[in-house]
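Provenance and format

Records in this collection were gathered into a single text stream. Each protein contributes a sequence line and a token line. The two records reproduced below are adjacent in the stream.
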Amino acid sequence: MDKFKEYSTICFKGYLGDFATEWWTESDWVDWNAHVKRLKETGEYGKEHKVNITLQHDPLYDEPIKHSRATESYRMDFIDMSKIEL
């Protein structure tokens, strides 16, 4: 399955999704709260921004099965490689 599919969604700056903090440490919370504070100071908190991702589906997991429910839950992490010096 070679086809790529693009997905788009609207997110809100400073808002977290379900289970986003499930494994966070104290340090993660400190960083997040500082981030939210900066967003509020600049007036960016709560503003919409569009997120686009392009995925190549894995047929083992992504083939729809008619009249069935998902049996597993997955999550994705995105790493911003633009800040890493190589």
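Adjacent record:
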Amino acid sequence: MLALKRIVTIAVMIYLLLALLFVFVPAVRTSVMGMGTGLSALEQERQFYYTLFVIGAVVLALQLLTENLDSSLLRRTVNQHEGKINELKAKLYDHQQRGTTSNAPMTPGSRTIDGRLTEPTITQSQAAGTVSSTENRTADHLPQPTFPQSDPSLSNTPPAERPPLA
């Protein structure tokens, strides 16, 4: 597809250069118009511009078709990639949920708005000092972000504790 698009773009550029040459250099235009049959000068010029118009319309149609085809193929590829990303996100979420349910029981009131645990929950086996092997392993080796993240430009304190703005 890319090769076809490049060929059509090159044809459009060549056509544009030739059209500009014919419009702005009368000597070239009259010599090309003189190649026609034994028509009068006015008929030769009319026929020349009509032919130039038809060629331009065909080249423009080819350009539009290839651009639209390429655009639709790119949109389809992007949609496929977005679907793949959403599928991977769903798998990651499911994997994290399985890890959360196997590591610690869910307790009401210990989750943030986005569903993450605010503080680790201690089970009876952990209090007794026995830790299972599944609790020592993490689901993935990526660091888990802590929300709200510390950002010096943002105040993470509740509105009641903030000093009044001056």
